[in-house]
Amino acid sequence: MLWLALSIFVTTILLVVFKPRPFNEAGAICFGVFLMLVLGLIPLSSIGQTLATNLNILFFFLGLMLVSYFAELSGFFDSAANLALKLSNGSSWRLLGLVFALGIVITMFMSNDATALLLTPVIFMLVQRYGLKPLPYVFACAFVANAASFIFPFSNPVNLLAVDKFGLSLSEYLGFMLIPALLAITIMIVIFYFIFRRDLKAGFSLVTAKAVVANNFSRSVRLALVFLAIGCLLTSFMGWPLAIPLMLTAFILMGITLFYKKMDFGHLRQSVSWSILPFVLGLAFMVNGLENAGITSALGNWLSGTMAGDNQLETGLITSFGTAIGSNLINNWPMMMVSVSSLSAITDISGGNAWLVYQAILGADLGPNLLIMGSLSTMLWLMLLRKRGLIIKPLDYTRLGLIITPPSLLVSTFAIFQLGKLSN
């Protein structure tokens, strides 16, 4: 049963990554779930519990997609990019730094998906308008989306898998992740400026800059987004489900959009990736099948064995780099689910060994900066740019990722390890 479950899981993930007809992401996952159900790897009695366990993540995703849609509709991302353009004062170096800053802020409060998928086309349009070389700026959007995605629990939906499973508080989370995130971002920015230094020599004129007109609709949306940022922080601090502020803000934004007669339900239906919801839920069912086959408990016992030999740093490296490598092979969503399930089998994981959970989060968030298939947002980022005429070869992304990711991951892993020792 163990090898059967693993074979179905790997085959399903390959179908998700390569999408042969007639499969899409959701269809491939549903096919894998169906096979596991038929073969008895997923008992029917566990369906209700799995669904209930993942409701927070499903509603978080739904709220996030709706909030991102209304923010884009209001011109929020255009306004933010236009502000960065004005502050750059014609300097390519300064503009890249402002793109990084903008990406960090949007990722912190609206998730890595918003940065990779909604900020990227706006930045690409701007650099094209001014004749700048686009690669430093569009790569910055993709890489900072992952590097900044573990600052807050809500900065990446993947984080919620661990937050919900182990009941992580905001104060504890920040205590472990803020410093490593700042270190990873700093290393990434320094390497970016060194690699792209020749592409950033040319300046540009702001004579043709187009101002983004603000109106009552856009101002109301921005006020709601401020409410969302505060709500996410308070909710994390109180330990409440993060879906609450996302869904509440989504309903507020829908009301604002209806009030100003900007609502187009047909456009909303086409613009939101609804298939993400069955995809995420299907992954949860498949990981349940792996648990029932004993795969995740075996991984957890192996990690417990490495700690028993007093090799805590080695265990931390295995957890972070293992999750990172696995994320690039099978995507960070299924890999994070497997990591969380495996870590839950370790004795005292919520006590003295809690720092290992943060190593897994680090690997799942930062790891996708290595290969395009590491995260769905990065794969969609690539396709989005291709539709706009910019062809980026996956190998070019990997070359840059191989330079940036290993040192960032190593330094951040060591930082979490030291913070874990101090907390004990």
What quaternary form is this? Answer: single chain
Strand fraction: under 5%
Q: Please tell me how large the radius of gyration is.
A: 21 Å
Would you count the extended β strands for me?
Answer: 0
The helicity comes to over 70%
Task: List the secondary-structure elements in sequence, H or E.
Answer: HHHHHHHHHHHHHHHHHHHH
Shape: globular
Largest sheet: none
Measure the end-to-end span: 39 Å
Kindly report the average pLDDT value: 89
What is the number of helical segments per DSSP (H or I, 4+ residues)? 20
SSE class: mainly alpha
Give the low-pLDDT segments: none
Keywords: Arsenical resistance, Cell membrane, Membrane, Transmembrane, Transmembrane helix
GO cellular component, one term: plasma membrane
GO molecular function: arsenite transmembrane transporter activity
Organism: Dehalococcoides mccartyi (strain ATCC BAA-2266 / KCTC 15142 / 195)
